[in-house]
Design a protein that fits this description.
4pyrrol_synth_NH2levulA_synth; 14 strands; Aspartate Aminotransferase, domain 2; about 15% strand; four-stranded mixed β-sheet; PyrdxlP-dep_Trfase_small; globular; 2 domains; EC 2.3.1.37; acyltransferase; Aspartate Aminotransferase, domain 1; seven-stranded mixed β-sheet
Protein backbone atom coordinates (compact mmCIF):
# COMPACT_ATOMS: atom_id res chain seq x y z
CA UNK A 1 0.00 0.00 0.00
CA UNK A 2 1.41 3.42 -0.95
CA UNK A 3 1.59 6.38 1.38
CA UNK A 4 -0.91 8.18 -0.86
CA UNK A 5 -3.35 5.30 -0.40
CA UNK A 6 -3.25 5.77 3.37
CA UNK A 7 -4.05 9.46 2.89
CA UNK A 8 -6.87 8.62 0.48
CA UNK A 9 -8.29 6.18 3.01
CA UNK A 10 -8.15 8.69 5.87
CA UNK A 11 -9.73 11.51 3.88
CA UNK A 12 -12.24 9.16 2.25
CA UNK A 13 -13.46 8.06 5.68
CA UNK A 14 -14.32 11.66 6.52
CA UNK A 15 -16.25 12.00 3.25
CA UNK A 16 -18.10 8.73 3.89
CA UNK A 17 -19.15 9.88 7.36
CA UNK A 18 -20.30 13.27 6.07
CA UNK A 19 -17.85 15.20 8.22
CA UNK A 20 -15.19 16.31 5.75
CA UNK A 21 -14.50 19.99 6.38
CA UNK A 22 -13.96 22.57 3.68
CA UNK A 23 -12.56 26.07 3.95
CA UNK A 24 -14.91 28.90 3.06
CA UNK A 25 -12.81 31.67 1.52
CA UNK A 26 -14.22 35.01 2.68
CA UNK A 27 -13.09 38.62 2.60
CA UNK A 28 -14.25 40.78 5.48
CA UNK A 29 -14.82 44.44 4.71
CA UNK A 30 -13.82 47.06 7.26
CA UNK A 31 -16.87 48.64 8.85
CA UNK A 32 -19.33 46.22 7.25
CA UNK A 33 -19.13 43.16 9.51
CA UNK A 34 -21.00 40.75 9.57
CA UNK A 35 -21.23 41.25 5.81
CA UNK A 36 -18.40 39.80 3.75
CA UNK A 37 -17.61 38.48 0.29
CA UNK A 38 -17.17 34.80 -0.43
CA UNK A 39 -14.78 33.74 -3.14
CA UNK A 40 -16.03 30.52 -4.73
CA UNK A 41 -13.61 27.87 -6.05
CA UNK A 42 -14.48 28.93 -9.62
CA UNK A 43 -13.31 32.47 -8.87
CA UNK A 44 -16.76 34.07 -8.72
CA UNK A 45 -17.83 36.16 -5.75
CA UNK A 46 -20.91 36.09 -3.54
CA UNK A 47 -22.04 38.48 -0.79
CA UNK A 48 -22.51 36.61 2.49
CA UNK A 49 -23.48 37.29 6.09
CA UNK A 50 -21.22 35.59 8.63
CA UNK A 51 -23.22 33.89 11.41
CA UNK A 52 -20.51 31.65 12.89
CA UNK A 53 -17.65 34.04 13.64
CA UNK A 54 -15.89 34.28 16.99
CA UNK A 55 -15.55 38.07 16.76
CA UNK A 56 -18.49 38.17 19.14
CA UNK A 57 -18.67 41.94 19.59
CA UNK A 58 -17.31 43.12 16.25
CA UNK A 59 -14.19 44.50 17.95
CA UNK A 60 -12.00 43.27 15.10
CA UNK A 61 -13.18 46.31 13.15
CA UNK A 62 -13.57 48.81 15.98
CA UNK A 63 -11.87 52.18 15.29
CA UNK A 64 -10.12 52.16 18.68
CA UNK A 65 -8.50 48.81 17.91
CA UNK A 66 -7.53 49.71 14.35
CA UNK A 67 -6.00 53.03 15.41
CA UNK A 68 -3.86 51.35 18.05
CA UNK A 69 -2.64 48.76 15.57
CA UNK A 70 -1.82 51.40 12.94
CA UNK A 71 0.09 53.46 15.50
CA UNK A 72 2.16 50.48 16.64
CA UNK A 73 2.84 49.31 13.10
CA UNK A 74 4.00 52.76 12.06
CA UNK A 75 6.14 53.12 15.18
CA UNK A 76 7.94 49.77 15.42
CA UNK A 77 7.21 47.74 12.28
CA UNK A 78 5.68 44.33 11.75
CA UNK A 79 7.18 41.49 13.79
CA UNK A 80 8.38 41.25 17.37
CA UNK A 81 11.79 40.00 16.31
CA UNK A 82 12.09 37.06 18.65
CA UNK A 83 10.84 35.05 21.59
CA UNK A 84 9.90 36.82 24.79
CA UNK A 85 13.27 35.86 26.29
CA UNK A 86 15.31 36.92 23.27
CA UNK A 87 14.43 40.45 22.08
CA UNK A 88 10.69 39.76 21.68
CA UNK A 89 9.37 41.56 24.76
CA UNK A 90 8.22 45.09 23.98
CA UNK A 91 6.35 47.79 25.81
CA UNK A 92 3.24 46.65 23.92
CA UNK A 93 3.45 43.15 25.37
CA UNK A 94 3.98 44.47 28.88
CA UNK A 95 1.11 46.95 28.53
CA UNK A 96 -1.24 44.19 27.39
CA UNK A 97 -0.24 41.90 30.25
CA UNK A 98 -0.85 44.75 32.70
CA UNK A 99 -4.32 45.31 31.23
CA UNK A 100 -5.14 41.62 31.54
CA UNK A 101 -3.89 41.31 35.11
CA UNK A 102 -6.01 44.32 36.03
CA UNK A 103 -9.01 42.87 34.19
CA UNK A 104 -9.02 39.76 36.34
CA UNK A 105 -7.77 41.31 39.57
CA UNK A 106 -4.61 39.21 39.50
CA UNK A 107 -1.01 40.13 40.25
CA UNK A 108 0.22 39.14 36.81
CA UNK A 109 -0.66 37.85 33.35
CA UNK A 110 1.31 35.97 30.71
CA UNK A 111 0.77 36.22 26.95
CA UNK A 112 0.78 33.31 24.51
CA UNK A 113 0.19 33.20 20.76
CA UNK A 114 -3.23 31.59 21.30
CA UNK A 115 -5.47 30.42 24.11
CA UNK A 116 -4.94 26.87 22.83
CA UNK A 117 -1.20 27.22 23.42
CA UNK A 118 -1.83 28.90 26.77
CA UNK A 119 -3.94 25.94 27.95
CA UNK A 120 -1.66 23.29 26.51
CA UNK A 121 1.59 24.88 27.71
CA UNK A 122 0.34 25.70 31.20
CA UNK A 123 -1.44 22.45 31.98
CA UNK A 124 1.45 20.36 30.63
CA UNK A 125 3.94 22.34 32.73
CA UNK A 126 2.18 22.36 36.10
CA UNK A 127 3.32 18.83 37.14
CA UNK A 128 6.92 20.02 36.76
CA UNK A 129 6.17 22.68 39.34
CA UNK A 130 4.08 20.50 41.66
CA UNK A 131 5.49 16.94 41.67
CA UNK A 132 2.78 14.32 42.07
CA UNK A 133 0.08 16.74 40.89
CA UNK A 134 -3.31 15.18 40.15
CA UNK A 135 -5.44 17.09 37.62
CA UNK A 136 -9.22 16.71 37.74
CA UNK A 137 -10.60 17.65 34.33
CA UNK A 138 -14.21 18.13 33.21
CA UNK A 139 -15.18 15.58 30.54
CA UNK A 140 -16.19 18.32 28.09
CA UNK A 141 -13.12 20.51 28.47
CA UNK A 142 -11.69 22.00 25.29
CA UNK A 143 -9.25 19.96 23.21
CA UNK A 144 -6.40 22.26 24.26
CA UNK A 145 -7.01 21.46 27.91
CA UNK A 146 -7.31 17.74 27.19
CA UNK A 147 -4.04 17.83 25.26
CA UNK A 148 -2.23 19.71 28.01
CA UNK A 149 -3.43 17.27 30.66
CA UNK A 150 -2.61 14.27 28.46
CA UNK A 151 0.93 15.42 27.71
CA UNK A 152 1.99 16.37 31.20
CA UNK A 153 2.83 12.85 32.29
CA UNK A 154 1.07 13.27 35.62
CA UNK A 155 -2.02 11.70 37.11
CA UNK A 156 -5.40 12.75 35.76
CA UNK A 157 -9.01 12.15 36.68
CA UNK A 158 -11.95 12.91 34.39
CA UNK A 159 -15.19 13.91 36.08
CA UNK A 160 -18.56 13.83 34.36
CA UNK A 161 -19.51 17.16 32.82
CA UNK A 162 -20.51 19.69 35.49
CA UNK A 163 -21.04 16.81 37.94
CA UNK A 164 -19.82 18.17 41.26
CA UNK A 165 -20.82 15.01 43.13
CA UNK A 166 -18.65 12.90 40.84
CA UNK A 167 -15.78 15.34 41.28
CA UNK A 168 -16.12 14.99 45.03
CA UNK A 169 -15.94 11.19 44.75
CA UNK A 170 -12.72 11.43 42.78
CA UNK A 171 -11.17 13.90 45.20
CA UNK A 172 -12.10 11.77 48.21
CA UNK A 173 -10.51 8.68 46.64
CA UNK A 174 -7.06 10.24 46.31
CA UNK A 175 -4.30 10.87 48.84
CA UNK A 176 -5.22 14.00 50.84
CA UNK A 177 -1.58 15.08 50.81
CA UNK A 178 -1.20 14.94 47.01
CA UNK A 179 -1.20 18.31 45.19
CA UNK A 180 -4.39 18.74 43.18
CA UNK A 181 -5.79 21.00 40.46
CA UNK A 182 -9.35 21.21 39.10
CA UNK A 183 -9.57 22.30 35.45
CA UNK A 184 -12.88 23.41 33.95
CA UNK A 185 -14.57 26.09 31.84
CA UNK A 186 -16.92 28.96 32.55
CA UNK A 187 -18.89 28.72 29.27
CA UNK A 188 -18.76 25.51 27.24
CA UNK A 189 -18.81 26.56 23.62
CA UNK A 190 -20.76 23.74 21.99
CA UNK A 191 -23.87 23.71 24.24
CA UNK A 192 -23.44 27.18 25.72
CA UNK A 193 -23.83 25.96 29.30
CA UNK A 194 -22.07 27.39 32.35
CA UNK A 195 -19.69 25.60 34.69
CA UNK A 196 -20.66 25.38 38.41
CA UNK A 197 -17.86 27.72 39.43
CA UNK A 198 -18.77 28.40 43.03
CA UNK A 199 -19.44 24.75 43.85
CA UNK A 200 -16.11 23.73 42.33
CA UNK A 201 -14.31 26.47 44.27
CA UNK A 202 -15.93 25.17 47.47
CA UNK A 203 -14.60 21.68 46.73
CA UNK A 204 -11.18 23.10 45.94
CA UNK A 205 -11.11 24.82 49.32
CA UNK A 206 -12.21 21.65 51.07
CA UNK A 207 -9.60 19.44 49.37
CA UNK A 208 -6.82 22.04 49.15
CA UNK A 209 -6.83 22.02 45.33
CA UNK A 210 -5.80 24.70 42.87
CA UNK A 211 -8.41 25.94 40.38
CA UNK A 212 -7.88 26.49 36.65
CA UNK A 213 -10.68 27.97 34.54
CA UNK A 214 -10.96 28.54 30.80
CA UNK A 215 -12.89 31.79 30.24
CA UNK A 216 -12.28 31.90 26.48
CA UNK A 217 -15.96 32.21 25.55
CA UNK A 218 -16.71 34.68 28.33
CA UNK A 219 -13.96 37.30 28.57
CA UNK A 220 -15.08 40.65 27.22
CA UNK A 221 -18.74 39.60 27.30
CA UNK A 222 -19.60 38.93 30.95
CA UNK A 223 -18.93 40.90 34.09
CA UNK A 224 -19.06 44.67 34.65
CA UNK A 225 -15.66 45.12 32.95
CA UNK A 226 -15.63 42.04 30.72
CA UNK A 227 -13.65 39.89 33.13
CA UNK A 228 -15.84 36.88 32.36
CA UNK A 229 -18.29 34.80 34.34
CA UNK A 230 -15.91 34.71 37.31
CA UNK A 231 -16.07 38.51 37.48
CA UNK A 232 -19.84 38.55 36.95
CA UNK A 233 -20.32 36.11 39.83
CA UNK A 234 -17.64 37.75 42.00
CA UNK A 235 -15.56 34.57 42.10
CA UNK A 236 -12.39 35.60 40.27
CA UNK A 237 -10.45 35.88 43.52
CA UNK A 238 -11.15 32.19 44.20
CA UNK A 239 -9.62 31.05 40.91
CA UNK A 240 -5.87 30.44 40.88
CA UNK A 241 -5.34 30.50 37.10
CA UNK A 242 -7.66 32.12 34.55
CA UNK A 243 -7.19 31.35 30.87
CA UNK A 244 -8.57 33.71 28.24
CA UNK A 245 -8.36 34.63 24.57
CA UNK A 246 -7.85 37.85 22.64
CA UNK A 247 -9.25 36.34 19.43
CA UNK A 248 -12.96 36.21 20.25
CA UNK A 249 -14.70 39.08 22.07
CA UNK A 250 -11.56 41.20 21.79
CA UNK A 251 -11.41 40.65 18.04
CA UNK A 252 -7.63 40.32 17.61
CA UNK A 253 -5.35 37.34 18.34
CA UNK A 254 -3.53 35.68 21.21
CA UNK A 255 -4.18 33.96 24.51
CA UNK A 256 -3.09 34.35 28.11
CA UNK A 257 -3.24 33.22 31.68
CA UNK A 258 -3.79 35.52 34.65
CA UNK A 259 -2.59 34.38 38.06
CA UNK A 260 -0.25 35.25 40.89
CA UNK A 261 3.12 36.77 40.04
CA UNK A 262 4.92 33.63 41.20
CA UNK A 263 2.67 31.34 39.14
CA UNK A 264 3.18 33.36 35.95
CA UNK A 265 6.90 33.58 36.63
CA UNK A 266 7.16 29.82 37.02
CA UNK A 267 5.12 29.06 33.90
CA UNK A 268 7.14 31.47 31.75
CA UNK A 269 10.34 29.93 33.08
CA UNK A 270 9.42 26.26 32.53
CA UNK A 271 6.82 26.02 29.71
CA UNK A 272 8.41 25.12 26.34
CA UNK A 273 5.30 26.39 24.55
CA UNK A 274 6.11 29.84 25.90
CA UNK A 275 9.90 29.79 25.89
CA UNK A 276 10.42 28.67 22.29
CA UNK A 277 7.64 30.61 20.53
CA UNK A 278 8.07 33.96 18.80
CA UNK A 279 6.01 36.56 20.61
CA UNK A 280 2.95 38.27 19.18
CA UNK A 281 3.60 41.11 16.71
CA UNK A 282 3.62 44.45 18.58
CA UNK A 283 0.71 45.77 16.48
CA UNK A 284 -1.42 42.77 17.52
CA UNK A 285 -0.56 43.30 21.18
CA UNK A 286 -1.38 47.00 20.86
CA UNK A 287 -4.74 46.30 19.25
CA UNK A 288 -5.61 43.70 21.87
CA UNK A 289 -4.69 46.06 24.71
CA UNK A 290 -6.89 48.77 23.19
CA UNK A 291 -9.77 46.31 22.88
CA UNK A 292 -9.44 45.09 26.47
CA UNK A 293 -9.21 48.66 27.71
CA UNK A 294 -12.26 49.76 25.71
CA UNK A 295 -14.46 46.86 26.78
CA UNK A 296 -13.77 47.52 30.44
CA UNK A 297 -16.17 50.48 30.08
CA UNK A 298 -18.50 49.54 27.19
CA UNK A 299 -21.31 47.79 29.02
CA UNK A 300 -23.80 48.92 26.35
CA UNK A 301 -22.08 46.71 23.78
CA UNK A 302 -22.24 43.71 26.11
CA UNK A 303 -25.92 44.34 26.80
CA UNK A 304 -26.70 44.60 23.08
CA UNK A 305 -24.86 41.36 22.43
CA UNK A 306 -26.92 39.50 25.02
CA UNK A 307 -30.11 41.08 23.65
CA UNK A 308 -29.35 39.88 20.12
CA UNK A 309 -28.71 36.35 21.39
CA UNK A 310 -32.00 36.31 23.33
CA UNK A 311 -33.95 37.54 20.32
CA UNK A 312 -32.45 34.94 17.98
CA UNK A 313 -33.15 32.10 20.42
CA UNK A 314 -36.73 33.28 20.92
CA UNK A 315 -37.33 33.42 17.18
CA UNK A 316 -35.79 29.99 16.56
CA UNK A 317 -37.97 28.52 19.30
CA UNK A 318 -41.09 30.07 17.77
CA UNK A 319 -40.38 28.08 14.59
CA UNK A 320 -39.79 24.85 16.50
CA UNK A 321 -36.06 24.64 15.92
CA UNK A 322 -34.46 22.12 18.32
CA UNK A 323 -32.35 24.62 20.19
CA UNK A 324 -30.10 24.24 23.23
CA UNK A 325 -30.55 27.26 25.51
CA UNK A 326 -28.56 27.53 28.72
CA UNK A 327 -28.81 31.31 28.88
CA UNK A 328 -25.47 32.14 27.27
CA UNK A 329 -24.76 33.94 24.00
CA UNK A 330 -24.15 30.71 22.06
CA UNK A 331 -27.06 29.48 19.90
CA UNK A 332 -26.73 25.80 18.86
CA UNK A 333 -29.48 24.31 16.65
CA UNK A 334 -29.33 20.51 16.72
CA UNK A 335 -29.65 18.67 13.41
CA UNK A 336 -28.43 15.29 14.67
CA UNK A 337 -26.98 13.95 11.43
CA UNK A 338 -23.64 14.91 9.85
CA UNK A 339 -24.85 14.65 6.25
CA UNK A 340 -27.95 16.77 6.92
CA UNK A 341 -25.90 19.30 8.88
CA UNK A 342 -23.46 19.73 6.00
CA UNK A 343 -26.33 19.90 3.50
CA UNK A 344 -28.09 22.62 5.49
CA UNK A 345 -24.87 24.59 5.79
CA UNK A 346 -24.21 24.31 2.05
CA UNK A 347 -27.74 25.37 1.10
CA UNK A 348 -27.71 28.31 3.50
CA UNK A 349 -24.47 29.50 1.93
CA UNK A 350 -25.13 28.75 -1.74
CA UNK A 351 -28.81 29.73 -1.89
CA UNK A 352 -29.14 32.39 0.79
CA UNK A 353 -25.68 33.87 1.33
CA UNK A 354 -25.71 32.83 5.00
CA UNK A 355 -22.46 31.38 6.31
CA UNK A 356 -22.68 29.06 9.30
CA UNK A 357 -20.21 26.21 9.62
CA UNK A 358 -21.47 22.67 10.39
CA UNK A 359 -20.27 21.30 13.74
CA UNK A 360 -19.72 17.55 13.59
CA UNK A 361 -17.86 14.78 15.44
CA UNK A 362 -15.31 14.87 17.05
CA UNK A 363 -16.07 18.44 18.10
CA UNK A 364 -19.46 17.24 19.38
CA UNK A 365 -20.71 13.68 20.09
CA UNK A 366 -22.21 11.71 17.21
CA UNK A 367 -25.94 12.26 16.96
CA UNK A 368 -25.69 15.86 18.21
CA UNK A 369 -24.36 17.45 15.01
CA UNK A 370 -25.44 21.05 14.83
CA UNK A 371 -25.34 24.51 13.34
CA UNK A 372 -23.92 26.91 15.92
CA UNK A 373 -24.89 30.54 15.49
CA UNK A 374 -23.00 33.37 17.15
CA UNK A 375 -25.09 36.55 16.96
CA UNK A 376 -23.30 39.83 17.58
CA UNK A 377 -24.37 43.42 18.24
CA UNK A 378 -24.03 44.11 14.52
CA UNK A 379 -26.43 41.37 13.46
CA UNK A 380 -29.49 43.56 13.09
CA UNK A 381 -33.19 42.86 12.40
CA UNK A 382 -32.71 42.55 8.64
CA UNK A 383 -29.98 39.94 8.97
CA UNK A 384 -32.02 38.07 11.55
CA UNK A 385 -35.19 38.09 9.41
CA UNK A 386 -33.28 36.67 6.45
CA UNK A 387 -31.74 33.94 8.60
CA UNK A 388 -35.05 32.90 10.17
CA UNK A 389 -36.83 32.72 6.80
CA UNK A 390 -34.03 30.65 5.30
CA UNK A 391 -33.86 28.23 8.23
CA UNK A 392 -37.64 27.77 8.26
CA UNK A 393 -37.70 27.04 4.54
CA UNK A 394 -34.76 24.64 4.54
CA UNK A 395 -35.93 22.83 7.67
CA UNK A 396 -39.18 22.03 5.86
CA UNK A 397 -37.35 21.21 2.62
CA UNK A 398 -35.18 18.65 4.42
CA UNK A 399 -38.19 17.30 6.38
CA UNK A 400 -36.42 17.73 9.70
CA UNK A 401 -38.28 17.41 12.98
CA UNK A 402 -39.47 20.46 14.90
CA UNK A 403 -40.26 20.74 18.57
CA UNK A 404 -43.15 22.41 20.30
CA UNK A 405 -42.43 25.67 22.04
CA UNK A 406 -42.67 24.95 25.76
CA UNK A 407 -44.70 27.11 28.04
Amino acid sequence: MTYEAYLDQAIGQLHDEGRYRTFIDIVRHKGQFPHATRRRPDGSEQPVTVWCGNDYLGMGQHPVVLAAMHDALDSVGAGSGGTRNISGTTLYHKALEDELADLHGKESALLFTSAYIANDATLSTLPKLFPGLIIYSDALNHASMIEGVRRNGGAKRIFRHNDVAHLRELLEADDPAAPKLIAFESVYSMDGDFGPIEAICDLADEFNALTYIDEVHAVGMYGPRGGGVTERDRLAQRIDIINGTLAKAYGVMGGYIAASEKMCDAIRSYAPGFIFTTSLPPAVAAGAAASVRHLKTDQALRDLHQERARILKTRFKAFGMPLIDHGSHIVPVIVGNPVHTKLLSDMLLDDHGIYVQPINFPTVPRGTERLRFTPSPVHGPDEMDKLIRAMDSLWSHCALNRQELAG
